[in-house]
Amino acid sequence: MGNTINAIIKKYNGDETRLMDILLDVQTELGFINDWTVEQISKSLDIPQVEILQTLSFYHFFHREPRGKYTIYLNDSVVSNFYGKEEIKKVFEEELGIKTGQVTPDGLIGLFETACIGMSDQEPAALINEHPFPSLTPDKVKNIVKLMKEKKSIEDIKGNKYGEGNNSHYLMRSLVNNNIREKGAVIFSDYTPGEAVKKIVKELSSTDVIEELKKSYLRGRGGAGFPTGLKWEIARKAKGDIKYIFCNADEGEPGTFKDRVILTELPKLVFEGMIIAGYAVGAKYGILYLRNEYRYMKNYLEHVLQEMREEGLLGSFINGKKGFDFDIRIQCGAGAYVCGEESALIESAEGKRGEPRDRPPFPVESGYLNKPTVVNNVETFCTAVKIILNGAEWYNKMGTKESKGTKVLSISGDCERPGIYELEWGFSVNDILKKAGAKTQDVLAVQVGGPSGNCISEKEFNRILAYEDLSTGGSLIIISKKRDLIKDVVLNFQHFFKEESCGSCVPCRTLTVIYEKIIKKIVDGKGTKSDIDNLLSWAAFMKNNRCGLGQTAANPTISTIKNFRQLYEEKVKGNIELFNPDFDENSAIKDYMEVVNKK
Amino acid sequence: MSIFVKFTIDGQICLAEEGKQLIEAAKENNIYIPTLCNFSGIPPKGSCRICTVLINGKPATACTTKVSENMDIKTSTEELENFRKAVIELLFIEGNHFCPSCEKSGNCELQALAYRYKIMAPQFPYLFPKRSIEAWHPKLIKDHNRCILCKRCIRGIKNEQGKSIFAYGKRGENLEINIDKETSKNISDELAQKCMDICPVGAILVKEKGFTVPIGKRKYDYNPIGSDIEKK
Amino acid sequence: MPNKKKIIATTSLAGCFGCHMSFLDIDERILDLIELVEFNKSPINDIKKFTKHCDIGIIEGGCCNDENVHVLKEFRKNCDILISLGECAIMGGLPALRNGIPLSECLEEAYLNGPTVKDANPRKIIPNDPDIPKILNKVYPCHEIVKIDYFLPGCPPRADLIWNALYALVVGNEMLIPYEVLKYD
After folding, report:
1. pLDDT cut 70: percent of chain A above it
2. What is the spatial distance between Cα A145 and Cα A143, in angstroms, rounded to a whole number?
3. Alpha-carbon gap, residue A327 to A317, rounded angstroms
4. Is the pLDDT of residue C1 over 50?
5. Cα distance between the two ends of chain B
6. Among candidates C86, A592, A41, which has minimal Cα distance to B120?
């Protein structure tokens, strides 16, 4: 085992900034990372054990005890629950004879839960040894457990009904479907890899590229909407000879899965966008930060990168141009939503805990390894390529005044056609409901932009998707009237934020716990009117957290109290403030009664 | 040669060296900006958020902000003071802070801030988390019940070989600060004392030491935290 | 000066009576106090049951058993204003040190396995008479059971703090809180 660990560390040249990769590889080899392993890594890298542990214990897919030869992570997202996750969980537990969070006594199979794995269009879903198993049914689960007990290989358990498109590529063999429902003129239009690179080498200087992007008014597609051309320009002008281009594929916002589909079908478009950014900014290195839930794509993506090297699109002298060198590596995450925040993502790629950094300095000035770093979303890079190919003028013809081009939307929840829709900015929520096959009269709410976004009611379904109106990173979860909004959605989201807080800022670390606790109290019928008022007023304290996660972590509660207050009031009706309805004497003396009645 | 810049805090004109930490620059101008996680001489982290101020109207932590010419800083707005109070209360309810039995009582910065803000009881529910006390170390006790996770020890303490002794573990509500068994093994008495002194609360204690100063003579019995800065 | 004397009740739940002792530490001001208020149910005058509705109820101690809960609820019903007096009432205080430990472990340590038990409990009985109060799973701050209107911290709260609070409440003035009288220990 010591040799295995040393070989892995050697592979990364004993570089402690590659600790994430070292830990991922060690866990893949040994199954888990115990104290002894931590000690070995600590000795080899010559850093204290507590510093290994602070990274290791941050990510929820790392574990220090065995989690089974087969490790099942059942998706606990809102949509997964809509589609019967509890029943699936029950069947898993019955078939395995264990509870969630446990491993079978023979050490063969472990059953755990995890936050949204990016499969909201095909729920309920689970990851088994990092392979997605979407659209689970009780029968499928029984069969999976049977095959696991027979110790079949994961390939045998998957069977051979792979998903469409590149999902069935021999390096992926994934059961996932793309569900592309509507292709637009930018991302999913015709594309020949390498043309944009050819064009810039022939016709455009690095400043020309940036000018074109600025003229296009392209704004970042991750949600914040920062102008891409400006970001690249700042990075280009930033001091330093080494610069980095990061692609943020840590798509963790529950309900979002567009990057999964783009990376599956158009990886070269993404990488070409990174190459162009490298050219424009003067960076020679790119890193694709891939969330652990999408690690099943890694071999396939590595293969694509190799192809691009062979095609002369990556490496030195790209397209024969002297000084145009660029290469890309893939950095996998290990389970932490907060790493989607750009500075946390950089920290993680440096082998540390995914804690957001204080700003300034911004990553464009001092990012990865303290060098100027551009971090853009998957979709942003793709869009940049198409703008370079077709020009800003072409791009500006689409969309609204302040939101040009198209947006790839992940639509899920209570509708007939969940999936990927690439639409011009400017569609109303009503238009989208129609496209997705949801009847407006059956829809209670639409969650726009994931838990950190906004939960809107019927009154606002005529609003349009655009930076100037309903801004979104691209997900819409449709919630029908048959759902209990507070229990099925708000409670799940608040639990999610509690689990995903890095814990560094006090308000986020503590109030996420309190919000979940009080929402639970209200759901249990034990809340009072003052609980609702408190939830509203405490949200102001969240604004002063360091990062976007913390600043928006009360949004599920706040936006639903604002738009659906009557639902809260129904749940607290009749409860008197004078006597806390949450205190139940019988349950408070239960432990005592058990002790004295034991014999 | 250092350049001095002019800026205002709550309308008061201030002067300080350009690029100085705002919290320190304010101190030089006799203005106290409350903080817990900041400690003079160690890199700031902005984790407690108590020193949040408005800089040209936008919230930012004073410990991580460098002063520049014409900065317009607000520190004592009602909203900010309510926020600070809330953070202090949140720190009380998220841990198990039994002041009457704590060795640091009277010298504790968290308690002192609560006194300064005249907090009678927190507005949030107590969480009573299950936390442990580590006593395996020959010289130190780590009481996780009292730890406010400010990272001062992580940032400010290295052993004689320059290696870290403390580090974070886990995340979110399970966040904790751990002591390294190897790097902390042979620390000197002086370093152990430094660990205890850098901790704003009673989470790191030197063994067999406690309640050395009688009630009435402790640091914050009569003098509010920050009053030394404001009095000058 | 109000026309009618305010009526006060006090009790000690899971406390040590230290808060009541500190109350008596207002010294000669107690003479002023009895001009302003009348005491009903309280250990100070040994009135065991409420005989009339009260204006102010002062609670020392948190709730560690069901009897504490009953008394506290009775106070809530019979008093317009409730004050949590001292750390135990506010946050459980030292009794709440057990809150991180399962009740069964506490009871077993206290009655079966503790080093001082030895042969004192030969029949290995954890007290279970139906007439003794039933212990709660944890020690509850009073405001987690009923609404509490004011809080006076300290272990015990300084006499000056208690006096200032009562005086302000009875007279209707704003309460004075000098720095040195607000302490948590």
Report:
1. 100
2. 5
3. 11
4. no
5. 27
6. C86
- Residue C53 has a CB neighbour count (10 Å cut-off) of 12
The DSSP output letter for A131 is: E
Choices 3.10.20.600, 3.40.50.720, 2.60.40.1930, 3.50.50.60: CATH for A406-483: 3.10.20.600
Nearest to A159 by CA among A143, A138, A171: A143
Cβ-based contacts of C87 with chain B (< 8 Å): 98-100
Which strands, in side-by-side order, build the sheet including B204-206? B133-134, B140-143, B204-206
Least confident of A76-85, A217-226, A403-412, A581-590: A217-226
- The vertex-A3 CA angle with A330 and A107, nearest 5°, equals 80
CATH superfamily for C6-98+135-181 is NADH:ubiquinone oxidoreductase-like, 20kDa subunit (3.40.50.700)
Could you give the 3-state DSSP secondary structure of residue A142? helix
Which of A131-135, A226-230, A262-266, C112-116 shows the lowest mean pLDDT across its residues? Answer: C112-116
- CATH class of the structural domain B4-76: alpha beta
Q: Which of B120, B128, B130 sits opposite C153 (nearest CB)?
A: B120
Closest to A231 measured CA to CA, from A277, A187, A199: A277
Reduce the secondary structure of B122-136 to three states and give it as a string.
Answer: CCCCCCCCCCCEECC
Which amino acid appears at position A430 of this protein? N
Closest C-alpha among A437, A543, A444, A449 to residue A486? A444
Return the structure tokens found at A464.
């349009």
Residue numbers of B between 159 and 218 with CB closer than 8 Å to C: 215
| CA gap C155, C93 in Å, rounded | 8
Q: Is A108 helix (H, G, I), strand (E, B) or coil?
A: coil
The chain C residues in contact with chain B (CB within 8 A) are 84, 87, 90-94, 96-97, 99-100, 138, 141, 143-144, 148, 150-153, 155, 177, 179-180, 182-185
Q: Do A589 and C73 touch (CB under 8 A)?
A: no
Cβ neighbors of A572 (< 8 A, separation 6 or more) are A522, A527, A528, A529, A531, A532
Token couple for C103: 């009740």
Tell me the C-alpha distance between B142 and B205, whole Å.
7
Q: Where are the domains of chain B?
A: 4-76, 85-227
pLDDT tens-digit series, residues A118-173: 999 999 999 999 999 999 999 999 999 999 999 999 999 999 899 999 999 999 99
Set of chain A residues whose Cβ sits within 8 Å of the Cβ of C145: 579-580, 583
Confidence of residue C118 (pLDDT cuts 50, 70, 90): confident
- Nearest Cα neighbor of A70 from A107, A33, A45, A98 is A107
Instruction: Kindly state the tokens that stand for B24.
Output: 């320190």
Task: Label the pairing between strands A109-114 and B72-74.
Answer: unpaired
- Please say whether the beta carbons of A523 and A571 come within 8 A: yes
In contact, A550 and B52? CB cutoff 8 Å: no
* Distance in angstroms (rounded) separating the CA atoms of residues C26 and C17: 15
Query: Does the pLDDT of residue A392 top 90, yes or no?
Result: yes
CATH number of B85-227: 3.30.70.20, 3.40.50.360, 3.40.50.10800, 3.40.50.800?
Answer: 3.30.70.20
Cross-chain residue pair B173–A546, CB shorter than 8 Å: no
Residue pLDDT, tens place only, A447-488:
999 999 999 999 999 999 999 999 888 899 999 999 999 999
Chain-centroid distance of CA A102 in Å reads: 25
Query: What average pLDDT does range B202-220 have in this prediction?
Result: 94
Residue type, A52: I
Are A147 and A89 a contacting pair, CB within 8 Å? Answer: no
Alpha-carbon dihedral angle through residues C38, C42, C44, C47, given to the nearest 10 degrees: 90
pLDDT at C49 exceeding the cut of 50 = yes
User: Which residue has 């002086």 as its token pair?
Assistant: B190
Provide the token pair at C19.
Answer: 């808060």
